[in-house]
Automatic annotation (TrEMBL):
Protein name in UniProt: Fumarylacetoacetate hydrolase family protein
Gene Ontology cellular component annotations, sorted alphabetically: cytoplasm
Keyword Cell division carried by entry: no
Keyword Ubl conjugation part of the UniProt annotation: no
Sorted UniProt keywords: Hydrolase, Lyase
Database matches in Gene3D superfamilies: Fumarylacetoacetase-like, C-terminal domain
Residue ranges of domain Fumarylacetoacetase-like C-terminal in the record: 95-262
The organism of origin for this protein: Streptomyces haneummycinicus
Pfam families registered for this protein in UniProt: FAA_hydrolase
Domain of life of the source: Bacteria
Length: 263
């Protein structure tokens, strides 16, 4: 890779980090570089994450994004993307978050996993993915964009860590053999009013397939999913705006609820 490309990647990562820190959005990368390759966008993501890790943040997992048809239609794409979860992005259920900390936040309810063993390789099966899961839980993912609007491409989102800002984790329970995550219906409410519903099958037909896809993507760049890591499978519905002075809650029949208070 030539020096000019390396400098552009480093500069783009720096610009994204500065936009978040200063809360001043920047122009989408694809405005100046139409047709930005996804591989290059992932290099920007990796460079920005490396800067945060050097500053003391720790990788605690990964997210698969744009895994449902609803989110693909909302984003205008036809394939998933992925981002890195750092420890300073994760909040327990019941937490209060300041809306002013983010720029254009939206929220999604998801089924998520904690792995009991490593999951890596080019051809991971669904059975292997299920066997690697130690616990399953509901999560609220707060997405945000450091660009001037949500009119972005999947390459822009990838560079921006797949638009991931915060993750709220519900209580974790063992993944039992009889649990059918594809059939699990999620109900999302804001201030007690149901806003949207969606079932696990909205995510690639089964949330476990998000693990399969993610293991394959990470393998292609020499990485993998590790024991103890958290993995978000992706939203089961189109994202909702996140407003100040509100409470967002997701619940389902077989998983403990998850709740976020926004001030």
């Amino acid at each position: 890779m030539d020096d000019q490309e390396d400098r552009w990647i480093a500069a783009s990562a720096s610009a994204l980090l500065a936009a978040e820190y200063e809360q001043v959005p920047i122009e989408a990368l694809t405005v100046r570089r139409p047709g930005l390759p996804l591989a290059t966008a992932y290099r920007v993501q990796k460079a920005a994450a490396a800067r945060r890790i050097a500053g003391g943040a720790r990788v605690v997992g990964h997210k698969a994004g744009v895994t449902s048809r609803a989110m693909q239609e909302q984003m205008g794409v036809d394939e998933p993307d992925s981002g890195v979860l750092l420890d300073d992005m994760v909040l327990p259920t019941g937490s209060t978050m300041a809306r002013s900390m983010l720029m254009q936040p939206r929220v999604e309810a998801e089924i998520a996993f904690r792995l009991g063993c490593d999951l890596a390789g080019p051809d991971v099966s669904e059975d292997e993915a299920r066997a690697a899961v130690k616990e399953v839980f509901l999560a609220l993912e707060v997405i945000d964009t450091r660009f001037t609007s949500w009119r972005i491409t999947v390459a822009d989102s990838i560079a921006d860590n797949a638009s991931c800002a915060r993750v709220v984790t519900g209580s974790m329970v063992p993944l039992s053999a009889e649990m059918d995550l594809a059939a699990e219906p999620l109900v999302v409410s804001v201030d007690g009013t149901t806003m949207v519903t969606g079932a696990g099958r909205a995510v690639l037909g089964d949330p476990l397939r998000a693990l399969v896809w993610l293991a394959g993507r990470l393998h292609r760049c020499g990485d993998g999913l590790r024991a103890g890591q958290l993995v978000l499978a992706g939203a089961v519905h189109a994202s909702l705006p996140l407003e100040a002075r509100s409470t967002v809650r997701a619940r389902s029949p077989h998983l403990p609820p998850v709740e976020l208070h926004v001030r």
